[in-house]
Amino acid sequence: MRDQEKERRAPKTPLRLALGAFSGALAGCAGLAVAELSAAGVRPQSGPVVAVGGAAIDRTPGAVKDWAVRQFGTDDKLVLRLGILAVLTLLAVALGVLAARYRRAGAAGVLLFGPVGALAATGRPDSPGPTDALPSLAGALAGALLLYALTGSLGPPKAPREPDPRDRDHGGSRNRDLGSPRDRDLAGRQDWNRRGFVLKATAAAASSAVVGLAGRSLSDAGGRDAAASRDRVVLPRPGSPARPVPARAGLRIAGLSPFTTPNRDFYRVDTALVVPKTDATRWRLRIHGRGVRRPAVYSYDDLLRRHLIERDITLTCVSNEVGGPYTGNARWTGVRLAELLAECGVRPPSGGGPADQLVARSVDGMTFGTPVEEVLDGRDAMLALGMNGEPLPFAHGFPVRMVVPGLYGYVSACKWIEDIELTTFDSYDPYWVERGWARRAPVKTGSRIDTPKPFARPRAGTVMVAGVAWAQHRGVDKVEVRVDDGPWRQAHLASEDTRDTWRQWSLPWQATGGGHTLTVRATDRTGRVQTEQRAPTVPDGASGWHSVVVTVE
Question: What local confidence, expressed as pLDDT, does residue 193 receive?
């Protein structure tokens, strides 16, 4: 009877392991909550999930990143964060199971998360120093202590006990008396404190929720200040406004991308797991480096008071596959970058300047390398303050970003910029160049079919084929469409706004029944025809003709 009583009072092995797993998951949540609160006191980017995610992005091969962008689009960062949380949860559960059998070993395993997160946080390019290690260390300590406390309520693991001769009477039958002090002591040591475990787990869950919400609220406070500073911005009337978009630059065809891409639909491809939110009143831009005879620091108000230009410019991401969505056209308002550099005494290499690379740094440590010659060759390279008539959205670089027509974003479109250093290509490799991408990357001539969509089933008769073509800073001269293996037919081009914007095109097609392949190609103003040869995005942008397959009914 004594053994039956002990079996009832002590958790069986499956239940014990399940409670250990639950304890591990709860300890992981508590650790993340404490880390979140600690990060609010240091800086949001020092949190373990963001730090480990950033380190993972930094160490991921370019081809894998490119695959993630293709598969998940602008949700790639959300997928990464969810993946990190899933892995952390599984590890926490495993350590909880370990702690159910080996209490100290499980808690020690949780402690190891601290140094891992600390190394990831302090190793980030934008890390100010050792303080970034505090959130991960604090979170790991809190998680380890909680796991140790919870599994302590389970009592020691039940182990087989050798038969004691005193437990049997002279006739060989088991003594069923539980009244001796020794028996009560053995049963007590095998007991587990159900009530204590439930109380500890409930208190831990509630505390974790409160701490996590408090951390999130404090982290968002800085974002609220930044949002308030953006709300107060009134963009001055540009001294050099963009000319009106020609009436026939935008074709009214169902399924065709609009000439001007709305801010909410403009593509976003970057490595920031958390969109930086900088208070414009505290923002500063430093210009320095080789050949900078008069280094300078500018505030946001300094730029607002300057002569502003307004231009329609199409941007294209180097990760854009043939026919991909990562290109968009917007009206940008900003300060000519060439004017700022001239004030600082910068000369182009062709004019004897010692620097041939402009390295732009964002507030999150990202670096972009832009050829100085292109910035100073007369094109509308700017530090943009506005996008489509409003201050830059946070996701697109508020307070200030770079825009350089004709270059892929990874060598020109630094968002959240705070530093410009003049140097040389031989002496410094920016972020993407370190990972196998080309140092120089002019946008390749490209075109895309927007309608009909792949695998569409239009009815026989007149079908409007339409899309966009781009060759920034060269201009689009011609677009041609081919049906199956037939001859190339010249499409109708919408009016050109500027050579730095894309152009819409259309072609009425007399569709006949059956399956067909539609192919498009563009020719730029230099006479260069878009190449048929397929190339991946790495190292300097994809190439090839875009095709769609449709079935005419």
Answer: 77
Helix H segments across 102-193?
A: 103-111, 113-122, 134-152, 181-190
DSSP output for 150-165: HHHTT-SPP------G
Do residues 503 and 470 lie in contact, with contact meaning Cβ atoms separated by under 8 Å?
Answer: yes
Q: Which of 113, 110, 60, 57 is nearest to 81 (CA)?
A: 57
Residue in 308, 323, 244, 303 with CA at minimum distance from that of residue 70: 323
Task: Kindly report the pTM of this predicted structure.
Answer: 0.83
* DSSP annotation string for 385-450: EEETTEEPPGGGTTT-EEE-TTB-GGGT--SSEEEEEEE-TTT---HHHHTT--S--BPPPEEEEE
Supply the pLDDT for residue 172: 44
What is the rounded CA–CA span in Å between residue 303 and residue 239? 13
**Residues in CB range of 196: below 8 A, 6 or more apart:** 153
Q: Is the dihedral of CA 317, 319, 323, 324 positive or negative?
A: negative
Contacts of 482 by beta carbon, 8 Å cutoff, 6+ apart? 488, 489, 518, 519, 520, 521
Q: Which residue has the tokens 């939110």?
A: 277
**Which DSSP letter does residue 246 get?**
P
Minimum mean pLDDT range among 62-66, 76-80, 315-319, 350-354? 62-66
The single residue listed with the structure tokens 């109708």 is 492
How does residue 211 score in pLDDT terms, banded at 50, 70 and 90?
Answer: very high
Structure tokens that stand for 361 in this block: 């740094």
* Cα(10)–Cα(335) distance, integer angstroms: 73
Give Cα separations from 544 to 39, 332, 411 (angstroms).
46, 29, 22
Least-confidence region, from 41-50, 251-260, 477-486, 525-534: 41-50
C-beta of residue 153 within 8 angstroms of C-beta of residue 197: yes
Instruction: Decide: 135 and 211 in contact? Cβ < 8 Å.
Output: no
252, two tokens: 């009214």
Q: Cβ neighbours of residue 445 under 8 Å, at least 6 residues apart?
A: 469, 470, 471, 474, 476, 522, 523, 524, 528, 529, 530
Unique residue bearing structure tokens 């001539």: 445
79, amino acid identity: V
| pLDDT band per the 50, 70, 90 thresholds, residue 5 | very low
Q: Cα(29)–Cα(85) distance, rounded to whole angstroms?
A: 10
Burial of 94 (0-12, 13-18, 19+ CB in 10 A): middle
From the CB of residue 498, how many other CB atoms can be counted at a distance below 10 Å? 18
Phi, psi of 491 (to 5 degrees): -85, 160
pLDDT band at 161 (very low <50, low <70, confident <90, very high): low
Rounded Cα distance, 429 and 409, in Å: 16
Q: What would the two tokens of residue 442 be?
A: 């002019």
